[in-house]
Amino acid sequence: MNDQPKISPTAPATPPFPEPGVPVIRNINWAGSWALYLKEVRRFMKVQLQTVWGPAITTLLFLVIFIVALGGSGRTVMLRGQAVPFADFVAPGLIIMGMINACFANASFPLMVGKVQGTLVDYLMPPISVGELLGALVASSVTRALFVGSALWAAMALWPGVHVTPAHLWAVLWFALIGTSFIAFLGVLTSIWADKFDHNAAVTNFVIGPLALLSGTFYSIDRLPPFFQGISHANPFFYIISGFRYGFVAAADTNIVVGSSVLLALNIGLGTLCYTLLKRGWKIKA
Prior knowledge:
- The chain is mainly α.
- A two-stranded antiparallel ribbon has the order 1-2.
- The mean pLDDT is 87.
- A hairpin with a 2-residue loop joins strand 1 and strand 2.
- It contains eleven helices and two strands, in the order ααββααααααααα.
- One of its GO terms (cellular component) is ATP-binding cassette (ABC) transporter complex.
- Its main location: membrane.
């Protein structure tokens, strides 16, 4: 009996495919991120009259008021020594302002409402990482902003006396992307901090609204005293609107490279802050 060769046990063969029903998530859960992104997009598209067309029509009324009621059709604005018709000057600013408001409204909504309604677990339980959660929320907010911007651009393109044909399409797309991404991160940060609708409304009314209106949307900062020009340069919304307008009229209030660098730095900073707070569960996890 002792002379018989010993047979070493062999490890069970690994099946080439996982067992049915067993999820396999490698580096990035693309399916989960895409599902959350679609959920957020479908959420605002179900009420698109309120979330897309309503803001577009409201912003379009600003154009009508400034051009028709104030007689702006014959005015020009000096932009770095270049005379730009007032309608062509104000139209890009109104487009990006509508995109900013829509983007912030979308990004600041999900987590805050989850706290109020007790459905925050729907964002915490799925098998997605913090980065994937943050990316889906930001991407859906940027998507809503692009929908609003596209609707506004189409309406203004049909308006007589307004020229919104891009002079530099790359600048339009680039500043629309980094500008709305910055606003989306700001909205997510607000959604993390806010515990009720009043908190959200306070940021909208006392931060987003004033910064958007005082960012050179309706005027060139060259007409301001030096002190107020310096204040305008401290407003990140100014770089969004100035760079976006450059894409249409080929002139800007500031160096677009500087503006792009400032916005990129703000995106990185706010994105890192949002990621850190979500990772720690600040005001999210009990």
